[in-house]
Amino acid sequence: MSIRINSSKCIGCGKCSNICPGNLICMKGKKASIEFPKECWGCTACMKECKFEAIELTLGADVGGNEASMTVRINSGRVEWKIAKGAERVNIEVDPMDSNKY
Ligand code: SF4
Ligand code: SF4
């Protein structure tokens, strides 16, 4: 499980780099880059910080299949997870106030 950064969407704000607890993301020029993707443990902090949906998480076979990926958008305080696998699309909307109930 690791993130991928879509450089065409990245505007170089640096927020993902600042929040990663493992210091795995660095800025190269005006684009974010993950140096050691295998070290990423998929906490999704960088994804939630990025306002441009420039970071996606590739999902392991145990949670979605090897070809599935996930992006996230914060919309009016709600968290919208978008999962894509081939042509399949699933959207999951979560109220952060409820997220610790499960
Ligand atoms: S938070 Fe998003 S837009 Fe900002 S540097 Fe990171 S990937 Fe780029
Ligand atoms: S998912 Fe977590 S560990 Fe992986 S790069 Fe983003 S903030 Fe760092």
TrEMBL record:
Pfam families: Fer4_7 (PF12838). GO terms for molecular function: 4 iron, 4 sulfur cluster binding; metal ion binding. It comes from the Bacteria. Transmembrane segments: none annotated. InterPro entries: 4Fe4S_Fe-S-bd, 4Fe4S_Fe_S_CS, Fe-S_Ferredoxin. Keywords: 4Fe-4S, Iron, Iron-sulfur, Metal-binding. Residues 1-30, 31-60 form the 4Fe-4S ferredoxin-type domain. PROSITE patterns: 4FE4S_FER_1 (PS00198), 4FE4S_FER_2 (PS51379). The keyword Iron-sulfur applies. The keyword Transit peptide does not apply. This is Ferredoxin.
